[in-house]
Design brief:
Length: 185
């Protein structure tokens, strides 16, 4: 599995970031429901699951080793309005898209860490879509509307996230349609 310490550190860091994003999105999803935006709540719940997939992928790409490890998170902290929470979510996703995953991926490639580079690649591609979905949701909420959607599908293998239409095959990892988990109200 993972042989190089820098990639191992990056896996632990990414595991920490994704684990925290998972929890944060569930809290922010509850708040969106309270604020009268149930579809935004649904989006937060679905994307929380995608982050759970990423955290799990990073975890199993890492060797089983003993020790205590501190993991950091690059995103904001605490509860705001749903608009503020969506802005925080977009900032966190964009940090991962622009800074974190491209560099983690390149380092893992350079170190010929196959499992880690695949795990970082899956996350990078899925986060691009998360940023877009959250941006659309934020626009709707700022206009006083809920986000328009019927259901959200998330690939259990790579965390790819799709609104209103499960693909025949995952465009990121190639998984079959049955590998998608659907989130509905
Ligand atoms: Fe994400
Ligand atoms: Fe996938």
């Amino acid at each position: 599995m993972v042989k190089n310490e820098i990639t191992a550190q990056n896996l632990r860091s990414a595991f920490g970031g994704e684990s925290q994003a998972y929890q944060r999105y569930l809290v922010w999803g509850n708040k969106a429901e309270e604020d009268g935006f149930p579809n935004v709540g649904l989006l937060f719940r679905a994307i929380a699951y995608a982050e759970e997939v990423h955290a799990g992928n990073h975890f199993v790409a890492h060797d089983n080793i003993e020790g205590d490890f501190l993991v950091a998170s690059g995103a904001g902290f605490g509860l705001g309005s749903t608009t503020e929470n969506l802005a925080g979510a977009i900032a966190g996703e964009n940090f991962e898209i622009e800074q974190m995953y491209p560099t983690y991926y390149l380092v893992a490639r350079e170190q010929q860490e196959k499992d880690a580079s695949l795990s970082f690649h899956y996350a990078l591609e899925a986060e691009k879509i998360h940023s877009k979905l959250y941006s659309e949701a934020k626009e709707a909420v700022e206009a006083g509307d809920d986000y328009q959607l019927d259901y959200v599908s998330v690939c259990k293998i790579c965390g790819h996230t799709v609104k209103d239409g499960t693909p025949d095959r995952c465009p990121i990892c190639g998984a079959a349609q049955e590998e998608f988990k659907e989130f509905r109200r």
